[in-house]
Amino acid sequence: TVGCVVVDKEGRCAAATSTGGLMNKMSGRIGDSPLIGAGTYACGVCGVSCTGEGEAIIRGTLAREVAAVMEYKGLQLQEAVDFVINHRLDEGKAGLIAVSNTGEVAYGFNCNAMFRGCATEDGFMEVGIWD
Amino acid sequence: MGGWAIAVHGGAGVDPNLPPQRQEQAKQLLTRCLNLGISSLRSNASALDVVELVVRELETDPLFNSGRGSALTEKGTVEMEASIMDGSNRRCGAVSGLTTVKNPVSLARLVMEKSPHSYLAFNGAEEFARQQGVDVVENEYFVTPENVGMLKLAKEANTILFDYRIPTVGYDSCGAGAESPLQMNGLPISVYAPE
Fold first, then answer.
1. Is the C-alpha dihedral spanning B19, A25, A90, A68 positive or negative?
2. Could you give the angle at the alpha carbon of A75 between the alpha carbons of A73 and A79, nearest 5°?
3. Which of A52, B42, B135, B154 suits A124 as a labelling partner, its CA being 20 to 30 A distant?
4. Is A107 left (phi over 0), alpha (psi -120 to 50) or beta?
5. pLDDT tens digit string along B62-105?
């Protein structure tokens, strides 16, 4: 699975996710990536793209959950990402990337690694794999 | 109002023994995609255009599980899916079950912008792709020798390969009933509460 989240200079957020799914999956199986609110979500507050065990991400409506705890619990972006990864995945293993309309970027995962990269206008840039 | 920001990912759950040169390849691809997005943002591109541009790049490179280099079904074929969402008005588009569309994320955007729906799948999505004139290729284009090998491994292990989970002790407490032989991500399918 691959994904990208962006907030532009106007503060507009967007998210996109694309995948081949699981190796040896049944034909016809649909995962989290195309499900809006599960693998992909964007609103006025943030943009989120998820990867990992689709069944767990779907059951946790993971991407929308980041926006929801920002809106209703008033969490900041990284707090929201950490809360969702730690409390909404049950036994599942997954990761996600997110941006906020104020130009923040965040990510989190509860498996052994996630291929990710992030950058902000003030010059921050990071590319990583392991924890 | 803050400035622009961008993040990309190439999947979670990685082989702990991934060879260093594969790790380096992955970092180079992630860096290339970040730079592609950054130069677009500096040219005032919209967030929606940048996420589509970057995911297309990731779909075209065979390194990660999407587009070319996608995971294979139990039949050894590729069935791809993608979605895109514009936060400024919460419009969205999604596709599933694609077998010939070169860049699924762009078809998802066309579903959002050129159809009355938010999600098209399988034959309907393939038909819409031809109506919209997007690039289509044979399914073989998406299959890589490496993934053919991975599928063989998965079949031998009778599992659905996703990531390297180290099953925690006592996980069977979540499972209802006897252990089923079918595995999902290295765990008995019973770990997943029946939908």
1. positive
2. 135
3. A52
4. beta
5. 999 999 999 999 999 999 999 999 999 999 999 999 999 999 99
